What does this fold into?
Amino acid sequence: MNSCHVSLTHPEENSDLVTGLTIFRPCIDLRLWNSLYEILRLGDWVLFFPAEKPPIIVSDRKRAAHLPADMRESLGPIREVHSGSEIAEIVRTS
It folds into this structure.
C-alpha cells in the first residue's frame, strides 16, 4: 500500500531532459503527493490523471498558459494547488 511505480519519459537525444513523469497506482503516502507538488513548482509542469473530465493541476495558474488549446479543451478546469494534500484530495474526489 505504500509503494508505486514511477516512470520518466525523455527524448532519445537528451536523456537529461525529462518530458514526462507517470505514476502507476499511486500510493496514499503523503510524501508522494508532497513530492509531486514540489515537482509542479519547478517549472511549467502540469498534473492530470484518468477521469471523465480531469482537472489540469498546477502550482500557479500562470503555468498553464503554455498548454496547447486542444489539451485545455479536452481536459477539465485548471486547478491551482498549494500542497500535496490538495492534490491528493482532488484525485480522491474526482
